[in-house]
Amino acid sequence: MAKVAEEWLNICGGCEISILDLGETLLDLLPSLEFVHMPVLMDHKYFGQTGEKTELEIPEADVGLISGGIRNEKEKHVAEEMRKKCKTLVALGSCACFGGIPALANMYPKEELLETVYRDSKTTESNGIPSQDLPALTDKVYAVDEVVKVDVHLPGCPMNPATILEALTCLLEGKPFELPERSVCDDCPTKREEKSDVALKRPLQDAEFVPGEYDKMRCLNEQGILCLGPVTRSGCGKPYLEGEENVPRCIKGYMPCRGCFGPIRKGANPQVEMMSALSSIGLDAKLIEDRRAFLNRYIGGQNRLRPLPPKVRR
Amino acid sequence: MGKKIVIQPVTRIEGHAKVTIQLDDSGNVADTKVNVVELRGFEKFCVGRPVEELPRIVTSICGVCPWSHHLASAKANDAVYGVKPPPAGRKLRELCNAIAYTEEHILHFFFLSGPDFVMGPDADYSVRNVIGIAQANPEIGKKVVRNRHLGSHMLEIVSGKAIHPVTAVPGGFSKPLTQADRDKVLPMAEEVLEFAKFSIKFAKEDIFPKYLDTVKTLGVINTGFMGTVADDGVLNLYDGKLRLMKADGSFADFAYDQYTEFISEKIQDWSYMKFPYAKSWGDGFSMDSTDPRGIYRTNSLARINVADKISTPLAQKEFEEFREQFGRPAQLTLLYHWARLIELLHNAERAIELLNDPEITSTETRVPVTPRAARGVGCVEAPRGTLIHDYETDDKGLVTSVNLIVGTTHNNAPINMSVNQAAKTLIKDGNYDQGILNQVEMAIRAYDPCLSCATHKLDGSIPVRVDIVDADGNLKDTFRN
Question: What is the CA radius of gyration of chain B?
């Protein structure tokens, strides 16, 4: 029986819910795999069941899943222990792969954050900075592969159950797994004319669409509604349940993509590539409000987002 | 000082915490702390973003209750932009809220807390989990897994994306519900209602009677409560006014945007999570369980306590029975589970009501908005308690300030008090084992805390200042490094 360990670091829990969204399939998997550690569902403790040990310990496993980036020393330590104990280590979700939304914090120096949160919040009675019995924060948010070696990246906010299942099945059989290098647009059913005759606008009103008929909707970028599909890895809409179509998830809501699956390939530069994608259909990318945060929303780790000098910041 | 026991990580809750129990020389409990050890920083990095993007950013505060953050943020956006969603837009939001509640309450009762009751608080840790339940009782296991998943599936159909949704927008909802999709979802909602009926019956017949003594003793404290009710005092999880009730049952009602006059937040050196309290009571703040001051609780038990009535028939019947048996306000901490199952039933009924509403398939779901400088407060009842999003914008609609108080944060002081009570009752003369420590954790699990939600804030590691406070929380002295 194959052993699986799961850990969550700087997280929201969405990736774990996505694992549960395997639904009854998860029950079918149970005879062939054993979860040896998973704090969200199971009671295995780091220092023994009554806290009697002095060293943090996670059981050995064939496959280790880590969700969340790294924001404090404890998370770093847990990531290192997972690496030590797991034969194959998977970064699950965009926080683990790229830092995720919490890495938007990398735009600000830590000192500035301190002041905002514990001194300047509306209802907070300022009374110092908590530190007793608490892990020290790292200087910024790190993707897991900035701290330990990662074997498989499964991005997405969250990754969908269909791909989690496919990847797990491959890895448990000892086969490699990699996502195809395709863009969200490659799977998007909307109509494209490769040009736009409107100005770029914020999504403050509906796109033009006929409910339920995605192939009749014109590409959102061509409608002037900024969509990060051209520079984002495809896979979010991969059907899992019977009767589902392969339509990108946000497009299903008639809403534009915000890049939650991250870059299409390693080494890509989505910021530059998006600007040229817009220019190629006649849109002025300079009109994007809050451009830096916008184009790096899920990928601020790995040095993509850094604090600007104070003058520019203000 | 005697030994220090550390439970780490606290498991089967959402997010990161540890419990520190300090024993005295004779092995009895001198002090306890629930240290919340994670932090992220949304209040800082939401500033500067276009406000209409926030409903798609704040969802990542919590992947378990993304709908609560999504909806509170969309409502704050409505207020900032000064618009009211059309009826179908509002109803679609409320439908998603109701479905999300069913999914989350099933998750909590059966996946997170259930193993303590079904497998037993002292069961071996390797089987005290949902997998243990599924193996010991495959039929229930299958039902539980299927019905939680039905919630996600329904949300996918209605909104396109169940986790970190995108369709609640300033001015309404971006995805009208087609007749075909409504017809797909309705039978699923009906199945979940059957499961909700089964759940409360199962708990009342097979679970609660077995643990009556535990319910009467574990984590018991005496506090006030807060939750949302409609204008007529009826329980409402999507919209209404806030009701803050004292332990004696007297209460004050107020509009969301008045919250700063009623609630304030303390900081303790040993937790990244802040400690809200009812400043309007004028009593100060104290977690001393013999004389608590300013302490109120949120989440299911609080909502059932502050509500006068529930709008759906089956849940109302359960509500009446609960109130007759436990009074108002009911204080026993483990009753949170019971209250949660009443809410599961209510939400399952409400989802069906909304799906049968002819207006729900209207294509008028959204009004357009124009940026302006304004403040907007959006509030919903998240499964884990009252969720407040408070935004300010400049004239381009870019965010200039964000204040968030989330469900679990309200319960920070009560959780600490319940843990203290549980540890003091259970650990005597230095005797404890994994089963006893698990019961201490059960006092936490009753609150279904979501510590990812509660630690949306971000700070640093360096103690730049240490304050000495007295028992009433008054500042006595300050040291800086």
Answer: 22
Check whether residue A58 and residue A136 sit in a common domain. Answer: yes
A127 and A224 in a common domain: no
Asked whether residue B362 carries a pLDDT value surpassing 80, the answer given is yes
The C-alpha atoms of residue A234 and residue B8 are separated, in whole angstroms, by: 38
The predicted structure's pLDDT at residue A244: 81
Q: What structural domains does chain B harbor?
A: 40-406 (1.10.645.10)
Residues B138-175 pLDDT 10s: 999 999 999 999 999 999 999 999 999 999 999 999 99
Q: How many domains does chain A have?
A: 2
CA angle B237, B241, B247 (to 5 degrees): 90
A interface test, pick of B3, B21, B38 with most A CB neighbours within 10 Å? B38
With contact defined as beta carbons under 8 Å apart, do A295 and A228 qualify? yes
Q: Rounded to an integer, what distance in angstroms lies between the CA atom of residue B51 and that of residue B46?
A: 8
Question: Mean pLDDT, chain A, as a whole number?
Answer: 92
| Sheet of B241-245, strands arranged across | B251-254, B241-245, B224-229, B296-297
What dihedral angle (degrees, nearest 10) is formed by the CA atoms of B118, B121, B127, B130?
A: 50
Query: Which residues of B fall within a CB distance of 8 Å from A124?
Result: 264-265, 267, 274
B387-419 pLDDT, tens digit each: 999 999 999 999 999 999 988 899 999 999 999
Q: What share of chain B is helix, strand, coil (3-state, %, to 5)?
A: 45, 20, 35
The closest of B387, B336, B339, B297 to B68, measured between CA atoms, is: B387
Alpha-carbon distance B346 to nearest alpha carbon in chain A (angstroms): 23
Facing residue for A127 by CB, picked from B35, B162, B266: B266
3-state percent helix, strand, coil for chain A, nearest multiple of 5? 30, 15, 55
pLDDT above 70 covers what percent of chain A? Answer: 94
Closest of A192, A188, A202, A252 to residue A222, by C-alpha:
A192
Whole-number Å distance between alpha carbons of A67 and A99: 10
Domain housing A15 = 2-172
Specify the CATH number for the domain of residue A42. Answer: 3.40.50.700
A293, part of any domain: no
Residue B311 DSSP SS3: coil
Q: First-to-last CA distance in chain B? A: 27
Per-residue pLDDT band at A90 (split at 50, 70, 90): very high
CA A11 to CA B38: how far, in whole Å? 9
Closest alpha carbon within chain A to B4: A51
pTM: 0.94
Strand partners, A70: A142
Residue A233 DSSP class? B
Residue B232 C-beta-side C-alpha neighbours within 13 Å: 4
* pLDDT one-digit tens code per residue, B284-320: 999 998 899 999 999 999 999 999 999 999 999 999 9
Q: Look-up: residue for tokens 């409990």? A: B29
Q: Which residues of B touch A41 (CB under 8 A)?
A: 11-12, 111-112, 129-131
Question: Which band of pLDDT confidence, cut at 50, 70 and 90, is reported for residue A83?
Answer: very high
CA distance B105 to B203: 13
Dihedral Cα B171, B99, B354, B447, nearest 10 deg: -90
Would you call A167 helix, strand, or coil by DSSP? helix
Contacts with B481 (C-beta within 8 Å, 6 or more apart), sequence order: B462, B463, B464, B465
Residue A168 and residue A189 in one domain: no
Residue carrying the six token digits 């490659």: A186
**B447: closest CA of chain A, how far (Å):** 15
Radius of gyration in angstroms for the set of CA atoms belonging to chain A, rounded to a whole number: 21
Determine whether the interchain pair A122/B452 forms a contact, defined as Cβ–Cβ distance below 8 Å.
no
Interchain CB distance below 8 Å, A127 and B469: yes
State whether A186 and A83 are in the same domain: no
